[in-house]
Specification:
This protein is globular. It has 204 residues and is of the alpha+beta class. Strands 1, 2, 3, 4, 5, 6, 7, 8 and 9 form a nine-stranded antiparallel beta sheet that branches. The N terminus is likely disordered. The protein has five helices and nine strands; from the N terminus they run E-H-H-E-E-E-E-H-E-H-E-E-E-H. The chain has one domain. The protein is 25% helix and 32% strand. The protein starts with a strand and ends with a helix.
């Protein structure tokens, strides 16, 4: 990744273990009681209309306060649902955690979810980076670096056929508060994004 230097771990990846344990296609995963290709109606029927965040939902994006099988570490769920292909992406937003400059609580929240996913899908590609030249390079500056987007802490599990994947990421809201996010991208997500951008650009 250009402009980034290694800090703790740089793409630790055990390919054999991942191919043996990890997901190979969309049907191998049903996170939060959801599955690829579900329609908006199918999802709303499961969670109820009261779970819809009307202010955040727009177009193909459905924002929910819960999921069919919610996890206590997450407070909201953003779903991208294609009119033709159904559910394309799930983005779960973690609950806020109070932390310190060292980011200990963010790291702990990240590790808890990462360990659970690793048990189910095998070892991920791990990244813990600090941008080259960043002044936030002391251990006590960890959260500030994350807040300034000069530090990254993430893990990625790719479908073995290359059609989708899972990404666990960490975010900072301030030097005293942060959270994690967990995304699942299903087959066709890339084409869906390209098509959506092409439709937007038709106005030019």
């Amino acid at each position: 990744m250009p402009g980034l230097i290694r800090r703790v771990s740089l793409f630790l990846f055990v390919a054999g273990a991942l191919s043996a344990q990890g997901p190979t296609r969309d049907s191998d995963v049903q996170p939060f009681g959801l599955r690829a290709g579900m329609t908006r109606k199918e999802i709303v029927d499961l969670v109820g209309v009261e779970a819809i965040d009307a202010k955040s939902s727009k177009g193909d994006l459905l924002a929910l306060s819960t999921a069919p099988s919610p996890h206590p570490a997450f407070e909201s769920y953003l779903l991208w649902i294609s009119p033709s292909g159904g559910l394309m992406k799930i983005h779960a937003v973690g609950k806020d955690v109070t932390t310190n400059g060292y980011g200990e609580e963010i790291k702990s929240a990240f590790k808890t979810i990462c360990d659970a996913l690793t048990t189910k899908y095998g070892p991920p590609k791990n990244g813990d980076f600090l941008k080259s030249g960043s002044i936030w390079n002391e251990p006590r500056d960890w959260t500030m670096g994350l807040l300034k987007k000069e530090r990254e802490l993430f893990a990625v599990w790719d479908w073995s056929n290359g059609s989708g994947g899972i990404t666990l990421d960490s975010k900072a809201m301030s030097t005293e508060k942060g959270y994690v996010t967990l995304s699942y991208e299903f087959t066709g997500w890339g084409k869906y994004v390209d098509s959506s951008k092409a439709d937007e650009n038709k106005v030019f």
